[in-house]
Amino acid sequence: MLLELDNVTVSYGRIEALHGISLTVGEGEIVALIGANGAGKSTTMRAISGLRPVGQGKIHFDGQDITKMRADLRVIRGVSQSPEGRGIFPGMTVRENLEMGAYTRRVRAEVDEDLQRAFDLFPRLKEREKQAGGTLSGGEQQMLAVGRALMSRPKLLLLDEPSMGLAPMLIQQIFDIIVEINQQGTTVLLVEQNAQQALSRAHRAYVLETGRIVKEGSGNDLLTDPAVKDAYLGVA
């Protein structure tokens, strides 16, 4: 397995947000993590990327225990996150934002290659290359956040709510691009409230409720599971 969480707990002060969750992500997969607001999805992502300390349990990535590894070293190992809320640098140009994603890289020719890849995936970013990130639309900022995360050449791409606040047509486009990124060889762990879109593209998925995993299965299985349909897909 590329990523393994084994009985991981995370707390905010005295409040335990994750109550011993275990999950795996295999190389080449798209794995979705779905659940309501406050279920612990973003906390799980922050634990994996090193932005939130783990209380108990272990996180293994690519055969190495990274439970206590610094966040920047995890990026160098191959974990990259596009955070909830996008987190772009509004005063920097599109190109500068993308290059910030490559801050751990040393070979200029490879960085240029990856810039071109980002522009191929998101032609709109090429058109806006010299524009300040803060002047982009919500959809363009989301493309920029994903493009920036890809600039570190991750083995595992963490996507936290990529469709949040986007128009339906753009949501479709973002998910199509996520599939394309995966087909190009990048493993994806996806946190998403749009369960329909996430499950229809995920190889496997987990359902998180109040800090506990309550269901797991293939994307298709969960898409047709009556309890999941009732709770997350808006249909009985």
Supply the key terms.
single chain, 236 residues, alpha/beta, Rossmann fold, four-stranded antiparallel sheet, 10 helices, 26% strand
Overview of the structural elements:
The chain is of the alpha/beta class and 236 residues long. The chain has two domains: 3-78 and 157-233, Rossmann fold, CATH 3.40.50; 91-153, no CATH class. Helices cover 38% and strands 26% of the residues. It has ten helices and ten strands. The chain has helices at 41-49, 71-77, 94-100, 108-121, 123-127, 138-150, 168-183, 195-201, 219-223, 226-232; strands at residues 3-12, 15-25, 30-34, 56-61, 64-65, 79-82, 156-160, 187-191, 204-209, 212-218. A hairpin with a 2-residue loop joins β4 and β5. α3 runs parallel beside α6 (138-150). The chain is globular. The chain starts with a strand and ends with a helix.
The overall number of domains is 2
Report mean pLDDT, rounded to a whole number: 94
- The count of DSSP E runs of length 2 or more, i.e. the number of strands, is 10
Output the strand order for the largest sheet.
6-7-8-3-9-10
Question: What's the architecture of the largest domain in CATH terms?
Answer: 3-Layer(aba) Sandwich
The name CATH uses for the topology of the largest domain is Rossmann fold
Helix segment tally? 10
Give the terminus-to-terminus CA distance.
Answer: 35 Å
Pfam family, one: ABC_tran
Keywords: Amino-acid transport, ATP-binding, Nucleotide-binding, Transport
InterPro entries: AAA+_ATPase, ABC_branched_ATPase_LivF/BraG, ABC_transporter-like_ATP-bd, ABC_transporter-like_CS, BCAA_Transport_ATP-bd_LivF, P-loop_NTPase
Organism: Paractinoplanes atraurantiacus
